[in-house]
């Protein structure tokens, strides 16, 4: 992809791969519990390649697809639903994929959860503009109650959310879902469209849908640890949003000055030269509940407003943040997940802005190597969800551990899961 203007998103690099059945079948051959498959998005037999990698498909309870927007998305989900039945098939489009060798583009990543270790229930939200929050909460509670009854001996639980990344409804949705979670930790990602920001899709019931979301509630015999991490540190430089349109996540003024111009001034930059890399390298954060969370800037509008990836409003105090050692931080975070036990797999939702930063700083090979060495697979997002919050510029996911060596959950992890 190419950069279309100074304010358009920068291209994201990756390493497209040709079909490689031996690589796709690696998980099955090594006896790992969670199965993974990878196929080129343009391959006419992509779904067949994925089915071969996840074989035997009759053993699967759930298949999750992270689909490059380069694919015929509607055809992929229709074919996959038929091919993998009776397993439920869900997924979304991406802003890049995380495959067997780390960052990649133009692929379909498939994750298969076998019913020998997993049970799942699907909550479909077909219209983000017109759902009943209480009915949604009731359904989640019922789903969890059923799985607790049918799999009482299993203790691992998590919820996975995939939501339209252009809906601008993620903040509201995560807040509405929270009462239905109980003690179960949730993670997820906003569906992407590369760096085009034109058309994102959530996949379920054999269809590719817009302005929709799907929640997957999972119970497992495996050990579970949901995590969220970033490599950013707040500075002392603060600013106040003095003019905004919250419904559009659009900021008109900062410090009573035109938004883009004031943001650029604080950085010592020319407002005409603001790019997606600028936003990735110089994020702004808000303080909520004693912690700082990124409010990522998506682009500069034609009129000089700043468009955000998440909720924003007048009166919000923004703090500039600085990036720390991205590779070192990721290495520490992934090592922490393996300290007591090696995960069978790490499912990840990685913000596209992190990937852009890695690309611009020529860190993509190191980041990819770290992800691959820890068997972290997933997709690049337009935003991440963790428990009751929609966040940006983080790596969020779940580490799944073999049940033969149960993990010890610390008091801190328990508290985070209940947050």
3D architecture notes:
The protein is α+β, with helices and mostly antiparallel strands and 419 residues long. Helix content is 27%, strand content 35%. A hairpin with a 2-residue loop joins strand 4 (97-99) and strand 5. The two termini are 39 Å apart. The model is unreliable at 1-29 and 405-419 (pLDDT under 50).
Keywords for this entry:
six-stranded mixed sheet, 419 residues, disordered N terminus, eight-stranded antiparallel sheet
Strands, helices and their partners?
Blueprint: H1 21-24, H2 26-29, E1 35-40, H3 46-54, E2 60-67, H4 73-84, E3 88-93, E4 97-99, E5 102-104, E6 107-114, E7 118-125, H5 133-150, E8 156-163, H6 170-181, E9 186-190, E10 202-204, E11 207-209, E12 213-220, E13 223-229, E14 232-245, E15 250-254, E16 257-258, H7 259-267, H8 276-281, E17 284-288, E18 291-294, E19 297-300, E20 306-308, E21 317-323, H9 326-337, E22 345-351, H10 352-360, H11 364-373, E23 376-381, E24 384-386, E25 389-391, E26 395-401, H12 411-418
Parallel strand pairs: 2-3, 8-9, 22-23
Antiparallel strand pairs: 1-6, 2-6, 3-10, 4-5, 4-23, 7-12, 8-12, 9-24, 10-11, 13-26, 14-15, 14-21, 15-16, 15-20, 17-18, 17-21, 19-20, 22-26, 24-25
């Amino acid at each position: 992809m190419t950069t279309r203007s100074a304010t358009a998103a920068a291209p994201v690099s990756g390493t497209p791969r040709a079909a490689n059945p031996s690589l796709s079948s690696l998980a099955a051959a090594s006896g790992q519990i969670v199965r993974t498959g990878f196929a080129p998005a343009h391959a006419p037999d992509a779904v067949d390649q994925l089915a071969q990698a996840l074989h035997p498909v009759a053993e699967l309870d759930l298949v999750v697809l992270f689909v490059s927007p380069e694919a015929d998305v509607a055809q992929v989900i229709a074919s996959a639903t038929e091919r993998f039945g009776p397993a439920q098939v869900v997924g979304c489009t991406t802003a890049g994929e995380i495959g067997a060798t780390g960052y990649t583009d133009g692929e379909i990543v498939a994750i298969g959860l076998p019913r020998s270790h997993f049970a799942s229930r699907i909550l479909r939200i077909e219209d983000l503009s017109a759902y009943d929050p209480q009915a949604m909460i009731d359904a989640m509670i019922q789903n969890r109650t059923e799985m607790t009854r049918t799999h009482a001996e299993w203790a691992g639980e998590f919820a996975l959310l995939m939501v339209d990344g252009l809906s601008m409804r993620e903040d509201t949705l995560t807040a509405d879902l929270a009462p239905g979670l109980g003690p179960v930790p949730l993670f997820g990602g906003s569906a992407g469209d590369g760096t085009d920001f034109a058309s994102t899709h959530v996949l379920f019931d054999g269809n590719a849908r817009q302005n929709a979301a799907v929640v997957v509630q999972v119970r497992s015999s495996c050990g579970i640890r949901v995590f969220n991490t970033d490599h950013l540190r707040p500075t002392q430089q603060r600013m106040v949003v003095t003019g905004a349109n919250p419904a559009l996540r659009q900021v008109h003024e900062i410090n009573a000055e035109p938004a883009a111009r004031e943001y650029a001034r604080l950085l010592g930059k020319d407002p005409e030269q603001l790019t997606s890399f600028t936003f990735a390298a110089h994020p702004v954060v808000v303080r909520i509940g004693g912690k700082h969370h990124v409010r990522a800037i998506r682009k500069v509008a034609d009129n000089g407003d700043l468009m955000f990836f998440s909720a924003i409003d007048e009166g919000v105090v923004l703090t500039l943040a600085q990036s720390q050692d991205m590779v070192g931080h990721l290495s520490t975070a992934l090592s922490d997940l393996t300290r007591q036990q090696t995960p069978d797999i790490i499912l990840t939702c990685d913000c596209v802005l992190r990937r852009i930063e890695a690309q611009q700083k020529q860190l993509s090979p190191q980041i990819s190597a770290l992800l691959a060495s820890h068997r972290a697979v997933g997709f690049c997002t337009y935003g991440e969800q963790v428990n009751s919050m929609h966040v940006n510029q983080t790596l969020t996911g779940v580490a799944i551990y073999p049940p033969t060596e149960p993990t010890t959950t610390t008091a801190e992890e328990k508290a985070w899961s209940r947050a």
